[in-house]
Amino acid sequence: MPTKADIKRLRQHVKVKIRSGDRVMIIAGKDKGQRGYVAAVAPKEQKVIVLQDNEENPDQPLPLNAAIKHRKARMQGERSARIQIPVPIHISNIMLIDPKTDKPTRIGRRKEGDKIVRYAKKSNETLKDLPLIDKTDKK
């Protein structure tokens, strides 16, 4: 039976300081020290998917913290392949890269005017948020 604290924790809105598009560095795990950008965020699970730019093929980024999936050939003449799939990584295992110093930093929140903004604690610089894509405007 869940305790009162468990129920309260489940009811609260999860505030995540990492957003998609942020430049991050992995600080723990098999890809420790690698840099990339956040492709997707799952606030309830507190996990993110991190991708890295690919110089050879810019249209297809490389996944960090990847698992290899073996795909069997379905038809004759088709080849079997090993595909890298990005695996979600916990938010505590990544740090945002400070835009000013280009080093990992913690993130804070403060009020500027009537908005709450994120800032890098190392350089005290406000982080520029990417504009959200409006999914209702489809052409």
Write up what this structure looks like:
With 139 residues, the protein is mostly beta strands. The protein has a domain at 13-104: SH3 type barrels (Roll). It is 6% helix and 39% strand. It has one helix at residues 4-11, and strands at residues 23-26, 35-42, 47-52, 62-63, 66-71, 81-86, 89-90, 94-97, 104-105, 107-112, 115-120, 125-126. The strands form three sheets. Strands 1, 2, 3, 4, 7, 8 and 9 form a seven-stranded antiparallel sheet that branches. Strands 10-11-12 form a three-stranded antiparallel sheet, with no helix packed on it. A two-stranded antiparallel ribbon has the order 5-6. The relative contact order is 0.16. Mean pLDDT is 86; it is low at 131-135.
> Major β-sheet, in short?
7 strands, antiparallel
Helices, by number, come to: 1
Question: Quick one: CATH class of the domain at 13-104?
Answer: Mainly Beta
Gross morphology: globular
Rg value = 19 Å
Query: In the CATH classification, which architecture of the domain at 13-104 applies?
Result: Roll
